[in-house]
Amino acid sequence: MLPFVLASVLIAGALGCGVPPIQPLTTRVVNGVDAIPHSWPWQISLQYLRDDEWRHTCGGSLIATNWVMTAAHCINKQNTYRVYVGKYNLVEQEAGSKAMTPEKIIVHEKWNPIFVAFGFDVALIKLTEHVTLSDTVRLTCLPPAGTILPNNYPCYITGWGRTSTGGPIADRLQQALMPVVDHATCSKPDWWGPGLKDTLLCSGGDGIVAGCNGDSGGPLNCKNAQGVWEVHGIASFVSGLGCNYEKKPTVFTRVSAYNDWINQVMIDN
After folding, report:
1. Alpha carbons 224 and 181: distance in angstroms, whole number
2. Distance between the two ends of the chain, CA-based, in angstroms?
3. Which of 73, 176, 183, 240 could bridge to 1 as Cys pair (CB 3.0-4.6 Å)?
4. Burial class (CB in 10 A: 0-12, 13-18, 19+), 68
5. 249-268 mean pLDDT
6. In angstroms, rounded to a whole number, what is the distance separating the alpha carbons of residues 186 and 138?
7. What residue segments make up the domains of the chain, in order of their start?
8. What class has domain 41-138+259-268?
9. Is the dihedral of CA 219, 177, 30, 200 positive or negative?
10. Catalytic site includes residue 73
11. Do domains 41-138+259-268 and 153-256 have the same CATH topology?
12. Looking at the predicted structure, is the pLDDT value of residue 15 above 90?
């Protein structure tokens, strides 16, 4: 069955990244829970205009003051988008949040929506203006190129995606512990299978916690040895059998496979 698509770094480092002023709750919760407001301050809501109403479609990560990283499958050239930074509750007006206009959107040139599992599910959005960093708006760090996390490494998915397969999207930003599943395990025949590309990253798979529609493009947040958060994954797809199907972990674009592409796009644009 076909997978079900979940509908530069130097600059970030210089400005400081991956250290939220409001610390997230990182107890080893099983199910997703409301995040502490603004504790993932690089999380953005990508929204599109439909019937004169802005609607959340995907997540994303603020990686520089005028650049957002999301998934290629989140982008439809026919749509008008905006990027909302500093959001926690999608249905409330919030101090410190701001809707930003994209100047340009660059989708990876090798992305093919017909072959989602081939990878390259990454896109960058350049904003028309720089955001002002604050307690509610911060940059995330990206991992060093080629970084591979070990099996069961604790990471957190965040987003406003559906709280269950076919259910409603969340109003408040959700977070859930989703440990990494290494490639050797995730590519087993009864998991995602040997065709799983090594540019993809699996997380979860316990049949309980998973990404779902609306989480697409959002981050898999993992803390490094220095206590700094890095976004190691961009939510890409889940099983067509359901968002939280056992041994079918949420699959992310592995960010550390695309450092060169990300940096080059930011330099060229």
Report:
1. 17
2. 38
3. 240
4. buried
5. 97
6. 32
7. 41-138+259-268, 153-256
8. mainly beta
9. positive
10. yes
11. yes
12. no
Check 61, 97, 121, 215 and give the catalytic one.
Answer: 121
Cβ atoms of residues 197 and 187 within 8 Å: no
190 is catalytic: no
Cα 88 to Cα 138: distance, rounded to the nearest angstrom: 13
DSSP code, position 40: S
Which residues are paired to 85 by β-bridges?
A: 98
pLDDT digits (tens, 9 = 90+) for 181-222: 999 999 999 999 999 999 999 998 776 666 666 688 999 999
In total, the chain counts a number of residues equal to 269
Q: Is the pTM of this model over 0.70?
A: yes
List CB contacts of 137: < 8 A, sequence separation 6 or more: 41, 62, 85, 86, 96, 98, 131
Cβ neighbours for 7, distance < 8 A, ≥ 6 positions apart: 57, 58, 73, 74, 213, 214, 216
Region 153-256: CATH code: 2.40.10.10
The arithmetic mean of pLDDT across residues 233-255, rounded, is 86
Report pLDDT for 173.
94
Q: Which residue in 8, 38, 45, 73 is the catalytic one?
A: 73
Distance CA 31, CA 21 (A): 25
Catalytic position from the list 8, 39, 97, 216: 216
Report how far residue 106's alpha carbon sits from residue 139's, in angstroms, rounded to the nearest whole number: 19
- What is the rounded distance in angstroms from the CA atom of residue 202 to the CA atom of residue 186? 7
pLDDT tens digits along 97-153 = 999 999 999 999 999 999 988 999 999 999 999 999 999 999 999 999 999 999 999
